[in-house]
Each structure stands twice: as structure tokens, then as C-alpha cells.
UniProtKB/TrEMBL annotation:
One of its GO terms (biological process) is L-leucine biosynthetic process. Keywords: Amino-acid biosynthesis, Aminotransferase, Branched-chain amino acid biosynthesis, Pyridoxal phosphate, Transferase. Acts on leucine, isoleucine and valine. The lineage of its organism: Archaea, Methanobacteriati, Methanobacteriota, Stenosarchaea group, Halobacteria. It catalyses: L-leucine + 2-oxoglutarate = 4-methyl-2-oxopentanoate + L-glutamate; L-valine + 2-oxoglutarate = 3-methyl-2-oxobutanoate + L-glutamate; L-isoleucine + 2-oxoglutarate = (S)-3-methyl-2-oxopentanoate + L-glutamate. The keyword Transferase applies. This is Branched-chain-amino-acid aminotransferase. Its cofactor is pyridoxal 5'-phosphate. CDD domains: BCAT_beta_family. It is an enzyme of class 2 (transferase). It holds the Pfam family Aminotran_4.
Length: 310
């Protein structure tokens, strides 16, 4: 993956100001750095026929504000200010398509675990980011490994909040998978049922119907998950989005795929040593993946309400 130093990007919005990329820094005694007390979003802006558009910005903004709630964190900017900052960051960096990263975290003041009077610092960056799991992955699918690490239970930490500290679990699971020759992990929840990927939701296809773990399975309420459910229902598929999926059901699935703002719609062709279906991208996965890219790159007029043009 290309490093930031190799990218042609020069502006980040930080606490109300547009600052030079290299100056968008924080103190080493920042609360969020020590305790993982931040919330963030991962959003994509796509190059459409009519300019760059941010996909489902309003829903990402909703989740950004909702993620702060368990931490009693107050983002000192309005939705309008964050929206304007995001669009302007994309414009100033001259990006046709982009990955957008808003973050809010407890900042620099003192280091008791209680954040006390620590300010909430907020930043928004945008940069070019190609296919998350590789171009080849979209077409041929990936090999995934069921991680030996379990996902934190929503009784231990709110898993529906996109909190920075949660991602050490994602790192452990993902790196374990990669060390073992797989592209990505599948993480089970505390009960041993399928939860999600380290940064993706997961879908299963069986006998022409679509299944995805319910929100009570300790997953993030993914915006791409929601998008794909809607696209599938519009195409007449039955989608079961409130179910538990056992580990064994992964092996007998006809098709499996991941969804996420970064991962988009990525087929899974193998889980551990078991080939899924015929070991390549399945037909329903392909149909939904095509529908997704036709949507976000605006080869259709559907769901215009999901796009905020830069
Ligand atoms: N689960 C986790 C743990 C994630 O980090 C992500 C990425 N935000 C997702 C699911 C997918 O969510 P979304 O489609 O909103 O990007």
C-alpha cells in the first residue's frame, strides 16, 4: 500500500482550520493516543459522470455523532461545518475519488483515564485509496481465515460505535490471517457465531437467499451492509438480516462476500481450507457487486439521495 509520503495531497482540516498535511499533528500526550478514545469514519467519494460525489455522507455523519454517545464526547462542530470541511478537503487536494477519514478524539490536557477537561479534537483527511483488498480480489475473491481471536462482545464495549481502540482486535485478527497466508480474517463473536471481518460485514448466500448476521451479533452497523441489503431486496432477493450464522454454515455456503466502505463488495472464495461454492466469485455476489459499482459510479440514476456532490 502506498505511503502518504508518495501521495499528492497537501491539506487536512483540523479543529476548524485547513492546515498543511505535514502540520496536522498532535501532542504525544494526547488522551486518544494512550487510551484509544476516539471515534472515526471511513467514507468513499467516487468519480461519477458528474463530478466527485461522497457516498452516503449523511449516514456516515449520523454514525460519527452516534459513536460519540457512549463516551460522552461532544464534537464541537455542526453537521454543516463537517460537511463543508469534507467537501473542501476533497476540492483542495484535487481528488476525483477519495477515501475520507473524519476522526474525533480526546486531546491534550491530562492523562487520567477519565478524560475530564480534555478537548475533543476533530480532523478530516482525504486521500486516494484504491481497492482495499486488491483489484484482483474484487474479481476472483479472497481467501479468509476464521480468526482465533474473538470479537469483543457488545456487553464489553459498544461494538456499534466506531471507536479507534476497537481496532486493535481487528489488527490482531487480520495480521494472524495474513501471517497464515490468507488475505483477511473472519471474526467470531463471544458466542462463537460469525460476526464480521476486521473492517467488513459479511454476507452468505444459500439456495438463492441472502443472510447476514443481525445487529445483536456484536457487529458494526455497516453502511455498505445496509446498501447491499437494499440493493438485493430491490432485485427481489430475500435477505435475512437478523440471524445468527454458525461457523459451520460458512463452509456450506454457496457464496460468501464482505462489504465495507473500504472493501466495497469483495467475494470470499475460500474459508480456512474449504473452498466456497465453486471457489470463485458467485453469481449473486457478482450481481450485487455490479449493482453496487453501477450505483456508486452513477451508471444509474437510482438513489440520488445517497450522493453529496463535491
Ligand atoms: N465492521 C467493521 C468492524 C468495520 O470497521 C467496518 C468498516 N467501517 C464495517 C464493518 C463496514 O462498515 P461500512 O460499510 O459502514 O464501512
Amino acid at each position: 500500500m502506498a505511503g502518504f509520503a508518495e501521495m499528492d495531497v497537501d491539506t487536512i482540516w483540523q479543529n476548524g482550520e485547513y492546515v498543511d498535511w505535514d502540520d496536522a499533528t498532535t501532542h504525544v500526550l494526547t488522551h486518544g493516543l494512550h487510551y484509544g478514545t476516539g471515534v472515526f469514519e471511513g467514507v468513499r467519494a467516487y468519480d461519477t459522470g458528474e463530478g466527485t460525489a461522497v457516498f452516503r455522507w449523511e449516514e456516515h455523519l449520523d454514525r460519527f455523532f452516534e459513536s460519540t454517545k457512549p463516551y460522552d464526547m461532544e464534537i464541537p462542530y455542526s453537521r454543516e461545518e463537517l460537511t463543508e470541511a469534507t467537501m473542501e478537503v476533497i476540492r483542495r487536494n484535487d481528488l476525483d475519488s477519495a477515501y475520507v477519514r473524519p476522526i474525533a478524539y480526546y486531546g491534550y490536557h491530562q492523562l487520567g483515564v477519565s478524560p475530564g477537561d480534555c478537548p475533543t479534537d476533530v480532523a478530516i483527511a482525504a486521500w486516494p485509496w484504491g481497492t482495499y483488498l486488491g483489484d484482483e480480489a474484487l474479481e476472483n475473491g479472497i481467501k479468509a481465515m476464521v480468526s482465533s481471536w474473538r470479537k469483543h462482545s457488545s456487553s464489553q464495549i459498544p461494538t456499534n460505535a466506531k471507536t479507534t481502540g476497537l481496532y486493535v482486535n481487528s489488527l490482531l485478527a487480520g495480521e494472524e490471517a495474513r501471517r497464515n497466508g490468507y488475505k483477511e480474517a473472519i471474526v467470531l463473536n463471544k458466542e462463537g457465531n460469525v460476526a464480521e471481518g476486521p473492517g467488513e460485514n459479511i454476507f452468505l448466500v444459500r439456495d438463492g437467499e441472502i443472510f447476514t448476521p443481525g445487529l445483536s451479533e456484536s457487529i458494526l452497523d455497516g453502511i455498505t451492509r445496509n446498501t447491499v441489503i437494499e440493493l438485493a431486496r430491490e432485485r427481489g432477493y430475500t435477505v435475512h438480516d437478523n440471524v445468527s450464522i454458525s461457523r459451520g454454515e460458512l463452509n456450506t455456503a454457496d457464496e460468501l462476500f464482505f462489504t465495507g466502505s473500504a472493501a466495497e463488495v469483495t467475494p470470499i472464495r475460500q474459508v480456512d481450507n474449504v473452498e466456497i461454492g465453486n471457489g470463485s466469485r458467485g453469481p449473486i455476489t457478482e450481481e450485487l457487486q455490479t449493482a453496487f459499482f453501477d450505483l456508486v459510479e452513477r451508471r444509474t440514476d437510482d438513489h440520488e439521495e445517497w450522493f453529496t456532490y463535491v
